[in-house]
Design goal:
Blueprint lengths: L4 E2 H7 L5 H9 L3 E3 L2 E2 L6 E2 L6 E3 L2 E3 L6 E6 L3 E2 L8 E2 L6 H4 L4 E2 L8 E7 L2 H8 L7 E8 L4 H9 L13 E6 L3 E8 L6 H7 L4 E10 L2 E2 L9 E3 L2 H10 L1
Parallel strand pairs: 8-9, 11-15
Antiparallel strand pairs: 1-4, 2-3, 2-5, 5-6, 7-11, 7-17, 10-11, 12-14, 12-15, 13-14, 15-16
The structure holds uracil.
The site of uracil has 8 residues, from helix 6.
Length: about 240
């Protein structure tokens, strides 16, 4: 059985305002529990079982939210930015009330998988250098990438600041003047993928993250589209950590 909780606490946890704000909302008669208007803010409910309506709209309680987004170019993966559009601006209000933030960054011109959550512990673990979560990128490179580069990436590459990267796995899709590869790294240094190729005198012309730990970018998501992770994905993400 789930624990019963105070109505004002549940609504505040869900992002409907501060404890003071939600007390006012409750007093105004805008909240229904099991089809009855409740005006007492210490009214006890089981947020997972009782039907909760706010302004006549049913709301579904959960503490954490986990979203995968196919980040488009020209949108920045920070929570606010004075100039650029942020990934949060792509989310609907029903998700924003949970205060999600991006777990990790992608450059402004990088596309692909971005996980947004309000679960700070999970985000921290996903990004912790100690955990070394795999991140796989599809990369198009101005340069001829061939078999010999697999060893070079595996042995680590010295970046412009002298840092030697951990072993990375290179898979070649197409060797040509513009090569197509997949690169899996366990770190997340600033502009890492671009700098790894730069160190080999090659320029990344297109970059897209296709997986992070056990989560693969859903191919049905167009650029700028997103969906919540399903239960299996959340379980895999938590198990991995
Ligand atoms: N490496 C980069 O260079 N850019 C990204 O956005 C992600 C990894």
């Amino acid at each position: 059985m789930n624990k019963k909780e105070r109505l004002d606490k549940v609504l505040a946890n869900m992002g409907y305002g501060s404890r003071k704000d939600v007390k006012k909302i409750i007093k105004e008669g805008r909240v229904e529990i099991n089809q009855k208007i409740i005006v007492k803010n210490d009214y006890k409910i089981d947020p997972y079982k009782d039907e909760i309506k706010f302004d006549g709209q049913e709301i579904f309680y959960r503490k954490y939210i986990y979203i995968m987004m196919n980040k488009p170019k020209d949108v920045v993966s920070s929570t606010d930015d004075p100039v650029n559009r942020t990934v949060l601006e792509l989310l609907d209000e029903e998700y924003l009330i949970f205060n999600p933030f991006p777990a990790g960054r992608l450059d402004k011109d990088t596309e692909g998988l971005l996980i947004l959550t309000n679960d700070g512990k999970l985000a921290h673990e996903l990004l912790s250098p100690k955990k070394g979560v795999d991140k796989t990128y599809y990369v198009e490179v101005d340069g001829y990438v061939d078999e010999k580069h697999k060893k070079i990436f595996k042995e680590g590459i010295v970046l412009d600041d002298g840092y030697k990267t951990l072993p990375a796995k290179l898979e070649i899709i197409e060797s040509n003047y513009i090569s197509k590869v997949e690169l899996t790294i366990k770190e997340g240094k600033f502009h890492q993928v671009k700098r790894m190729f730069q160190a080999l005198d090659m320029e990344v012309t297109y970059l897209k993250r296709i997986s992070m730990g056990p989560i693969n970018l859903d191919k049905s998501l167009g650029l700028g589209e997103y969906r919540e992770l399903d239960d299996k994905e959340i379980k895999r993400l938590k198990e991995k950590n």
